[in-house]
From TrEMBL:
Residues 813-878 form the Valyl-tRNA synthetase tRNA-binding arm domain. This is Valine--tRNA ligase. GO terms for biological process: valyl-tRNA aminoacylation. Residues 811-880 form a coiled coil. NCBIfam families: PRK05729.1, valS. Gene3D superfamilies: HUPs (3.40.50.620), Isoleucyl-tRNA Synthetase, Domain 1 (1.10.730.10), Valyl-tRNA synthetase, C-terminal domain (1.10.287.380), Valyl/Leucyl/Isoleucyl-tRNA synthetase, editing domain (3.90.740.10). The gene is valS.
């Protein structure tokens, strides 16, 4: 058969070549339908430093789910791919590769080194795209962008110049975070604070012209080489007599003044504070107030410079050791007290960051931040999911500092500023005319260009660009909470400044992927998981299912191979269900399905189970769509899982066997059509999450054509809703389950026929479905009536709308049966208490939707009926 599926799901076979077929068919490009509502996403660009990690796999999976569903719903969808040049990280990687051959970047010079970086970019960009293909992401490669593309570079230059002309970009000497390994400045948010073991070194400084000393404490004794003052609080009686005098720095014997400043806390330490303006942010502020000199005592690579006297040339930490030893020998090291404290580390290289005075380029953030804050109170506000991350964004914007944007690198957007020998500076989008101009050697922070990503990728600064006019602002951004400061916030304030609009309508925030023990994945722990290894073993669909169902928005998720096994088992279950359906309905045409569904909807053909499953399908499609619209992919996945595994596979398929093994061919045709339709709709609902195997099965359905990628997403079809069928089959399922449970309790296998009595107001319905009851419960004698005599010795169960009795004389112990029923009574009492508590809550009743309140009232009536019936049965057994 052409539509036959292999006996066992094999992800490698199913996914091989599938992505290339999609690309060849151009199914990922926008529809171009001018009447369709546009929906756009720009991919959070991975940097070109290596392979994708699980966090990026999570980003792309969630975005692909969104865009695939919107595409199927008829939106004119654009998912624009691209990559980030990642200045510090990429330059470090290339430098490390060259070092393996004994080559330094300086040996090559800027231009030849950049040639090597472009070779690296081409190599790893190809790798990333191959991995995207394995993930199945449905991007439009005809619009692929890179942050160093000429178009994006033009946008960067324009933004820089405009901000400079407004006075919002400036060049100045300030204290910044310095990475001694990468030898570049860092912004505040590129510094990760880690708790490490350190010490407070208590050192004495001699008062000039006396034998008196003052004691200071520092965690960085090497910085005393750059001290330019000590301060005390003017209210501190201990030191009033010293104010205006000088102290002598030990070893280097430089004289510095004793000043008063509120920064000195009388209650903290000795109350005397050393001021090192060029290497501490608080000291820098004090120095600005007192017009103190600022002495930089460190080279770019973290070694001591010429201001360090005999320590010149030593690494900062080696200098610390020698300084401590020398102070001890002089008798000016009073004490060393261990301390556990937070120290800033470079987010890129991992080394301890050095606060350091440096001339850099900065962005003034006050007005940009003010605009972003104000925008969140307008109709153009960015919606965060979950909403609590709006507070995270607002808090950062309210406390943001000026942004240092220059980096001492070669790889990146070179700052559009030029200098001449006359000391003049020119800032412009293009180089100045004439000779004698030299461009600033620094490049811009990678996040400067990434901040323009949503609109620069759409053709801005050409505001007449077709894509910019059609797809900007973008619809949804998906990213982790760890880069709200790095990227999300910067995109918002830059977009507002240069386009007058928010860059996107929604921001979906996910958490971090941790290992099974809850630890963050890292190289040092060796607990990282390569998504490509997972795909090789389980397939991309299984990984995507795990990533989409792992947690709620904003929450971290723990990677687990047990969960991967469960995902694979779920896919295999659907595969087997599909195989069964295809084997039994291989020749059913699309017209036949349509005709059969019309008959079922009109109740002219088909049985109650057909009407039930179509009703449940409607409910599933509605609820899944609602949850997807709220980005609650985990909830949507849970709904799909329950419908597919429990209702469709475990119940409907089994119930259809009563028809499929029967003699009524017309009824078989109806059931085959319903089976195919439900499978078709299930595949469409699943496709955004698991695209590969759903396409594989979809193309084998006898009544479909084309790719599922552009197939219509399921909609609720009101004509299929049948509440009576839904309630009736729910009662049938509950009855069958109750019988199975009773048989299990008294160790009576299904193969042994036993008598069964059912008392119900719905006796007519239950008699109509008695063939199903007989097939799945195997009664030796089945009695169904609205009223009947209850046998004394019988196991019983109360279900919604019916009482079930199995006379099992000789197999039942009355006392044990009473005990069992009393447990059941307690269960119903607990349910009643919960519902009564909810309905007794005035706020719930007043604020909840009417249908929600009514649902709780219906539960109350159902539980009360079951409670009363069980209670009465217990009384009967006790009387007898």
């Amino acid at each position: 058969m052409t539509n036959e599926l292999t006996p066992k799901f094999n992800p490698t076979e199913v996914e091989a070549g599938r992505y290339e077929k999609w690309l060849e068919a151009d199914v990922f490009k926008p529809s171009g339908n001018p009447d369709a509502e546009p929906y756009s996403i720009v991919i959070p660009p991975p940097n070109v430093t290596g392979k994708l990690h699980l966090g990026h796999a999570w980003d792309t999976t969630l975005q692909d789910i969104i865009i695939r569903q919107k595409r199927m719903q008829g939106f004119d969808t654009l998912w624009l791919p691209g990559m980030d040049h990642a200045g510090i990280a990429t330059q470090a990687k290339v430098a490390a590769r060259l070092a393996e051959d004994g080559i330094l970047p300086q040996d090559l010079g800027r231009e030849k080194f950049l040639d090597k970086v472009w070779e690296w970019k081409d190599e790893y960009a190809t790798t990333i795209k191959e991995q995207w293909g394995k993930m199945g992401i449905s991007v439009d490669y005809s619009r692929e962008r890179f942050t160093l593309d000429e178009g994006l570079s033009q946008a960067v230059r324009k933004v820089f110049v405009q901000l400079y002309n407004k006075g919002w970009i400036y060049r100045g000497e300030k204290l910044i975070n310095w990475d001694p390994k990468a030898m570049t400045a860092l912004s505040d948010i590129e510094v990760i604070h880690k708790e490490i073991d350190g010490a407070f070194y208590h050192i004495t400084y001699q008062i000039e012209g006396s034998d008196e000393f003052v004691e200071i404490a520092t965690t960085r004794p090497e910085t005393f080489l750059g001290d330019t003052a000590v301060i005390v609080n003017e209210k501190d009686e201990r030191y009033k007599h010293l104010v205006g005098k000088n102290v002598i720095l030990p070893i280097i014997n430089r004289v510095i003044p004793i000043l008063t400043d509120d920064h000195a806390d009388m209650e903290k330490g000795t109350g005397v504070v050393k001021i090192t303006p060029a290497h501490d942010p608080n000291d820098f502020e004090v120095a600005m107030c007192h017009d103190l000199p600022m002495i930089n005592m460190m080279n770019n690579d973290g070694t001591i410079n010429e201001n360090g006297g005999k320590y010149e040339g030593l690494d900062r930490f080696e200098a610390r050791k020698q300084i401590v030893a020398d102070l001890k020998e002089l008798g000016q090291l009073v004490d060393i007290k261990p301390v556990r404290h937070e120290v800033g580390h470079s987010e890129r290289t991992g080394v301890v960051v050095e606060p350091r005075l440096s001339t850099q380029w900065f962005v003034k953030m006050d007005e940009l931040a003010k605009n972003a804050i104000a925008n969140q109170a307008t109709e153009d506000a960015v919606e965060f999911y979950p909403p609590r991350f709006n507070d995270t964004f607002m808090q950062w914007m309210e406390n943001v500092h000026d942004w240092v944007i220059s980096r001492q690198l070669w790889w990146g957007h070179q700052i559009p500023a030029w200098y001449n020998e006359a000391g003049e500076m020119y800032v412009g989008e293009e180089a100045p005319e004439g000779e004698g101009w030299t461009q600033d050697a620094d490049v811009l922070d990678t996040w400067f260009s990434s901040a323009l990503w949503p609109f620069s990728t759409m053709g801005w600064p050409d505001e007449n660009s077709a894509d910019f006019k059609r797809y900007f602002p973008t619809s949804t951004l998906v990213t982790g909470y760890d880069i709200i400061f790095f990227w999300v916030s910067r995109m918002i304030f830059q977009s507002l400044e240069f386009t007058g609009k928010s860059p996107f309508h929604n921001v979906l925030i996910h958490g971090l992927i941790r290992d099974e023990e809850g630890r963050k994945m890292s190289k040092s722990l060796g607990n990282g998981i390569d998504p490509m290894d997972v795909i090789e073993k389980y397939g991309a669909d299984a990984l995507r299912w795990f990533l989409s169902n792992g947690s709620a928005p904003g929450q971290d998720v723990r990677f687990s191979y047990d969960k991967m096994d469960a995902a694979w088992n779920f896919i295999n279950k659907i595969w087997n269900v599909s195989r069964y359906i295809l084997m039994n309905a291989e020749d059913v045409s699309a017209d036949a399905v349509s005709s059969a569904l019309t008959k079922v909807a009109n109740k002219t053909s088909g049985n109650v189970t057909d009407r039930w499953i179509l009703t449940r399908l409607n409910d599933t499609a509605r609820r899944v769509t609602e949850q997807m619209d709220k980005f609650e992919f985990g909830v949507a996945g849970h709904i799909l899982y329950n419908f597919i595994w429990d209702e469709f596979a475990n119940w409907y398929l089994e119930l259809t066997k009563e028809v499929m093994f029967g003699e009524d061919e017309a009824e078989k045709d109806i059931t085959r059509a319903v089976l195919l339709h439900v499978l078709d709709q299930v595949l469409r609902l699943l496709h955004p999450i698991m695209p590969f195997f759903t396409e594989e099965i979809f193309e084998k359905l006898p009544n479909t054509s084309g790719s599922i990628v552009v197939a219509e997403y399921p909609k609720v079809r009101p004509e299929f809703n049948d509440d009576k069928a839904s309630e009736g089959v729910a009662m049938l399922i509950e009855l069958i389950t109750a019988v199975r449970n009773i048989r299990a309790e008294v160790n009576t296998p299904l193969s042994k026929a036993v008598p069964m009595l059912i008392k119900s107001e719905h006796a007519d319905f239950l008699n109509a479905v008695s063939p199903y009851i007989s097939r799945f419960t195997n009664p030796s004698e089945l009695t169904i009536a609205k009223d009947l005599a209850v046998p004394e010795q019988a196991m019983s169960a109360v279900i919604t709308g019916a009482e079930l009795y199995l006379p099992l004389a000789g197999l039942i112990n009355i006392e044990e049966e009473i005990a069992r029923l009393e447990k059941e009574l307690a269960k119903w009492q607990k349910e009643l208490d919960l519902v009564n508590k909810k309905l007794g809550n005035e706020r719930f009743v007043a604020n909840a939707k009417a249908e929600v309140v009514q649902k709780e009232k219906d539960k109350l009536a159902d539980y009360q009926e079951k409670f009363d019936t069980v209670k009465a049965r217990i009384a009967e057994l006790k009387e007898n």
